[in-house]
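Summary for the lay section of the report: proteins are chains of building blocks that fold into shapes. Here we show the chain for Glutamate 5-kinase and then a coded description of the shape we predicted for it.
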Amino acid sequence: MEAREALRGKKRIVIKVGTSTVTYEKTGYINLEKMEKFVRILINLRNQGKEVIVVSSGAVGIGKNVLGIEGRPKGSVKQACAAVGQGRLMMIYEKFFAEYSQLTAQVLLTRESVYNETCRRHAKKTFEELLAMNVVPIVNANDAITVDEDSYGNFGDNDTMSADVAALVGADLLIMMSDIEGLYTDDPKLNAKARFVHTVYQIDERLERMGKGAGSELGTGGMTTKIEAARTAVAAGTDMVLANGDNIYIINDIMAGKRIGTLFVSGGVEHENEMAPEKETYRGIARHQRKMEIQKSAAGGR
Ligand SMILES: Nc1ncnc2c1ncn2[C@@H]1O[C@H](COP(=O)(O)OP(=O)(O)O)[C@@H](O)[C@H]1O
Ligand SMILES: N[C@@H](CCC(=O)OP(=O)(O)O)C(=O)O
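The coded shape description reads as follows.
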């Protein structure tokens, strides 16, 4: 079966949303409309018989915002922001999920939770128990109690963690929402000739060289860590789709098998990676995406 079409049948799905998806970039406040849509999409997936695990960032950003802290917090200030923001983030998720009587659970992880064998075993059992109870786990790093070397650190954090979680629970699919449509042959913000990569069957050195650092001030890790995350996911037998979280309905399109985002296929070494033709540069794709978004909002946001 064609790799995109196969996405329709995926049962256990991990979805990672970043700070840029759950908050407004300009003000730092929670994007209630997007979060509400996101929760409805998740409930619909549950209604289709799928198991969903959310990896959600946002604690530091939300905490920093309500505490009125300027700039990028560090050390214990960052930890305090996370402690304040995590509660608020969960409160919003709880509120929206509760409207549909869907139970959720907060799971906060450190590196040790995943890399220490005993902790890993226990964490896995907890996830299995929660999924068997039809609960939606909402996962984040336990930033409040960990310093950078024990937590998921400053580099890549929740991208890396979502792939580790996907591997831990044996997910069929990891959907990673970014601030960009997917992987390009180079950072498209710096190189307008960068071509879009539709499907990755092999994560080789050439592909790794395509991924550069973060494009925005608040971004963590950029494409480098996403490619690393994809490597972890596919090695564990989990397909990964990297897509733009700007339009959250994109999750439905991905699940419908549409050619959206970059798909990293697990166990597909016999194929060449698929890239857009040279004429379809970043600008062309960005223009096409904007057109699609305008059409969608004209149709009432679907
Ligand atoms: N090859 C590449 N393809 C796509 N984006 C890239 C690439 N190399 C670097 N980037 C940058 O990585 C950014 C996405 O990573 P990041 O800033 O961490 O965002 P987020 O946390 O929202 O996912 C993009 O906006 C882009 O500027
Ligand atoms: N654990 C942190 C998230 C760190 C992180 O990876 O953020 P992001 O790059 O927005 O996904 C928080 O909740 O603020």
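Put simply, here is one thing we learned. Residues 3-182+198-267 form a domain with the Carbamate kinase fold (CATH 3.40.1160.10).
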